[in-house]
Amino acid sequence: MALRSTGGIVLPKTKNPSKDEILLYDCPARVEIRLPELCAPAVEKDEYVRRYQIIACCEDGFSVYASIPGKVTVCEKDRIIIENDMSQKTAESDSNKPKTIDDINYESLIEYSRRYGVTGAYSGVPLYRKISGAYGKCSRIIINCIESDPYSGHVRALVCAHAKEIVLGAKILMIGMGVKKCVFALGASYSAAASAIKEHISDIPGMVIAGIKEKYPVGNEYLLLNAVYGKELSRSRSTAESGYPVFSAETVCELFSALRSGLPSIYKVLTVAGKGFSKPYAVRVPQGCSVADLADFIGTTEKFDVSFALGGPLNAISVDRDSFLANNTNMLLAYKAKKPFDGTCIRCARCASFCPMDLVPFLFHDSYSAGSYSDGVARGLYNCIECGICSYVCVGKIDLLSEIRAQKKALNEPEELTPEQPEEIPDTPDVTGATAEEEKQLDHESSAEEILDAVAGGILSSITEDEAAAETVEENIEEIVEEYIEKTAGAPDDDTTEENTGEDVPEPEIDAAEETVEETSEETDAPEESEAEKTDDNE
Fold first, then answer.
1. How far is residue 313's CA from residue 6's CA, in Å, rounded to a whole number?
2. What is the sign of the dihedral through the CA atoms of 305, 311, 314 and 317?
3. Is 302 helix (H, G, I), strand (E, B) or coil?
4. Is the pTM of this model over 0.85?
5. How much is the pLDDT for 237?
6. Running DSSP on this structure, what letter comes out for residue 27?
7. Sign of the C-alpha dihedral computed for residues 33, 310, 491 and 11 taken in this order
8. What value does the mean pLDDT of the chain take?
9. What is the pLDDT of residues 177-202, one digit of tens each?
10. CA contacts within 13 A on the Cβ side of 52
């Protein structure tokens, strides 16, 4: 059977671009390149640059490159904007690129990763930092090919089209980091992607495939590690520092492509989806491409005013057309804006039952409402991965995710913030109206289910806003919550993370993937007027 992590939720299937070719959009009118910390511009305003030319350098040797040719119109300490002259002029490739795989060792891998500006596809952090943080502490690496968000499909499209490059990129990491085991984590129903990877790993010892149950948000590296190895790591350390480095499929593909061509990494692959577009697409764009340019290239509907957001439908952040994509943007949504959530917490604890990090999100709502943001830290605020499940399943229609983000922002700024209005959010599938059979499919391995049993009598799908029931809940909720926090250690862990001590941790069996790789998820377009939309229109 497929491997799985604790917590999370099974989302309805939607149409995605996983079986389509990846479009190339190479001519945006302008790009904005965000500069990492301790990075200084190497160009000046009004200077002309070519594609692949160095435009900034960091103190540690990491380089940033122009993703289009043209004139530098903005040059600041944290960003550079380039206007495209459409000339397609490019800088020359690196003549000192490695000639064979025998040229790769730890030192050269770090040097090439810095020189070619390779960053994490999800984190946006320079790749060499993760490599150096894990070196000497790990005996295996994990390649993340998971897409638990129903709209996302570009990773599967990338794996199917560039499986060889991904496998060779992973092999380079294994050689440079001195590890002998590599796990490719794919969704249990990714039959085409699994077949593509399997074709290229058959002759490489130490590489296996692990089939993972596609339960949102298992793509998070902490949850992915939990699914593959059954490990639960503290959020106070990265998975790399704890001896279990996780690299995305796109990152290792970019690493191999840069080493082979001698050209730096300047492109990003992402999914564009939502009802504002005619259909979902997987698109490869220059880093820093603007939302407006990409939206115009794809084409938006004229049926309604389109709003945009970056991220999946459960955790997206609203942006305007003049915004730019970051080097870790993996999805652009175009949707019909809805009214912000404005609800009331009925203390049902449903959010706690589904939270993949074993937190109690409605307590963060209490901290937010009271303006006591520091209380949220003791309740595990910084353990939150901002997946958005709590807002999604909230019966009281509270935008818990926006409140959590507002508290984190307030705690990281010198001036105290007043509670902000929740953001407009894109359309999301309806879970509160799930059938009894669908509810059975939702996993509740987390001990948070004990709260539901105590507070709501074990009733998950039929919680109401009945005042009498809410009053009964109020009488015993505080005692239950305190016991729950003590049991699950929801507060940020201290620096006692279990590190890899070299013991022989069982590897996932390849049979776990083979057993379920047949295609089980025929994706279809959502109906034009779904039940979720009807419900929202009546609210």
1. 21
2. negative
3. coil
4. no
5. 84
6. -
7. negative
8. 80
9. 999 999 999 999 899 999 999 999 98
10. 14
Residue indicated by tokens 């999946």: 312
Taking the C-alpha atoms of residue 315 and residue 216, their distance in angstroms, rounded to an integer, is 11
**pLDDT (tens digit per residue) in 349-379:** 999 999 999 999 999 999 999 988 888 898 9
Tell me which residue of 344, 365, 361, 323 sits closest to 446, measured CA to CA. Answer: 361
The correct CATH number of 17-21+95-263+508-514 out of 3.40.50.11540, 3.40.50.10770, 1.10.287.1080, 3.40.47.10 is 3.40.50.11540
CA distances from 430 to 393, 394, 433 (A): 9, 11, 6
Cβ pair 312, 151 in contact under 8 A: yes
Nearest to residue 379, comparing CAs of 496, 236, 482? Answer: 482
Q: What element of type H or E holds 314?
A: none
Residue 148 CA to residue 25 CA, distance in Å, equals: 25
Closest to 423 measured CA to CA, from 442, 435, 405: 405
- φ and ψ of 83, to 5 deg: -90, 130
Alpha-carbon distance of 299 to 53, in angstroms, equals 31
DSSP SS3 for 282: strand
Does CATH number 3.90.550.10 belong to domain 267-340?
no
> Which two tokens mark 35?
């500069």
Residues 6+ apart with CB under 8 A from 73: 30, 45, 46, 81, 82, 83
* 52 pLDDT higher than 70: yes
Residue 277's closest CA among 225, 333, 325?
333
Give domain limits for the chain: 17-21+95-263+508-514, 27-84, 267-340, 350-488
Farthest-apart Cα atoms in the chain, separation: 75
319: β partners = 308
Which CATH architecture best describes the domain 27-84? Beta Barrel (2.40)
What SS3 class is residue 132?
A: helix
Chain-centroid distance, C-alpha 465? 33
Sign of the alpha-carbon dihedral angle for 310, 311, 313, 318: negative
pLDDT value at residue 418: 40
